[in-house]
User: What shape does this take?
Amino acid sequence: MAISAADSNPAIVWFRRNLRLSDNPALGAAIEHAGENLICLYIFETDDTLRPLGGASKWWLDKSLRTLKTDIEALGGRLILRKGKANETLAKVVQESGANAIFWNRRYDEAGRTIDAAVKSELKAQGLTCESFNGSVLTEPWTQKTGSGGYYKVYSPYWRSVQKAYQPEPVAAAPSKLLSNTLASDDLESWALHPRSPDWSTGFDADWTPGEHGAAARLNAFLSGPVSNYGNDRNRPDLETSTSGLSPHLAFGEVSPAQIWRATKLRVETGQIDAKGAQKFLSEVAWRDFAYVLLFHNPQLASENFKPDFDGMPWEGNADQLKAWQQGRTGYPIVDAGMRELWHTGWMHNRVRMITASFLTKHLMIHWRDGEDWFWNTLVDADPASNSASWQWVAGSGADAAPYFRIFNPITQGEKFDVSGDYVRKWCPELKRLPRKFLYQPWKAGPLILREAGVELGANYPHPIVDHSEARTRALAAYETLKERRDAA
Assistant: This one.
């Protein structure tokens, strides 16, 4: 039976990337332990072994914490904000509050796991109850085993395993009331998470509503219709409802994969949505889990090639071309549209992520780490597992990777997936009057067509920074060199 007496020892709920009150396993366990007497704590960790958040992620965190704070206060409690190293901060909060237990949801990056293990050991040695839970993935990264007992390195059999074995845990209890406390808390403004001088996030507000309520609204909107066509539409960046847009909410744990799974399955069972589209959607949720499997078993996934053979790849480091790619000034409209969408909204459609990543690593021969780092800093959904696993997938160096010799043609990719042309016209407005025949290769248009469309190549829109055919030949030659080095080793 849950405890509710105000004079009981409080329990600490350590919020990390699980910024929600509903179906939060750590929070549910804390309620069972201490009832309403909870210390809701978020630590902005400063341990130098942790990868610092990128700018766009800080923007999202700022808004998500504000929402969580409001939700907790509506129940009578307080969200305590502290900045520092986890072990030192938790020790202080325990001393100040008299808490006798601490609960959190697990993380799976090596630095985070190391910190958590040390914290758990120290607190247990002091006699505190200390428990952690799965609140971030469908299944823990060590649970799905291959026939030989190893972890899955290919997605398709992994997905089959998940479908066969996965059953969501019972919904964790959510608080209906919380007790207040007088603990000191940082002012969120002092963390300076929102960008200033300049504020480059001005386009973010129109697209995003960070927080648990925004996540629930987006999930409901997607499951109310668009999911049924997901299998056909998910590669269409010109369609606003082609994807769920849940990735940043998942990244910050404002909704969990288990919640998505339950809600989707329920609508299928009640005949509200198409089962095929729903299954494809859930397979993409499970792809995120697969990325965590890879990260857990390969802690250096963000910095080292999953396939060591790629250590010999003759990458080139053209700083001017990297900058042109970052700014959406490559001269290839589908690439430029994606990079501009990223800068203005903190997000990019997944199909275009693949196209832009392929262009960087194969057309420009720039190391995938440079692209991964840029995405880490500019994506609101930057995720320690998905970001690195996806970049390595495109580059060809990862698990279950697209072969290196699979080189996305940025012209035909635009023609095939930006069916209406609306995507390029929105993000590259200088090209909006071009006929669709030339929209993805404006250099093929004659002088009269360019003039009538108001396009001046080299002035208001750049010439291509590389020739597609020549770049493809160079990339294939680099791959052959890599194979020769490997075979000679």
